[in-house]
Write a structure and sequence with these properties.
about 140 residues, mainly alpha
């Protein structure tokens, strides 16, 4: 079950990449994303922990650690999305039901293939590709 963290993270990285000389405070980024600065700080922290952003204590703003062309969306996805959250199978289906007892095994390969296809697409797309789409 995907939430908007990935889209917000890509938004943050795109803002920083397109305005490298501006001081991008969490308040300024939050204004562009139209969310609370706390959300921006939380996601920025995830991106920093993944090595995609650099910040300095006492200095507002953040910067990319690499060129936008060297940051894949798969890296961004893995930085902000909890593992195995994309497709969750409901817990404890009724084992007495023929569908309930077999639903997980029936869906496992389908969900794995879908996740792999998504990850392949994200791996093939960089933050620079998004910037190119934004400003073309």
């Amino acid at each position: 079950m995907m939430n908007s963290r990935l889209a917000v993270a890509i938004h943050i990285l795109s803002l920083l990449a397109s305005n490298p000389r501006d001081v991008a405070t969490s308040e300024w980024i939050a204004g562009s994303v139209n969310t609370n600065p706390v959300v921006i700080r939380r996601i920025t922290g995830m991106l920093k922990q993944a090595g995609l952003l650099r910040t300095q204590v006492g200095v507002p703003g953040a910067e990319l650690t690499r060129a936008p062309s060297d940051i894949s969306l798969l890296e961004v996805y893995r930085a902000v999305q909890p593992k195995d959250e994309l497709f969750a199978i409901h817990e404890q289906p009724n084992p007495a039901c023929p569908v309930g007892k077999n639903i997980q095994s029936a869906l496992d390969n389908v969900f794995d293939d879908a996740r792999k296809a998504m990850e392949d697409q994200l791996a093939a797309t960089s933050v620079q590709d998004i910037l190119s789409r934004l400003f073309s």
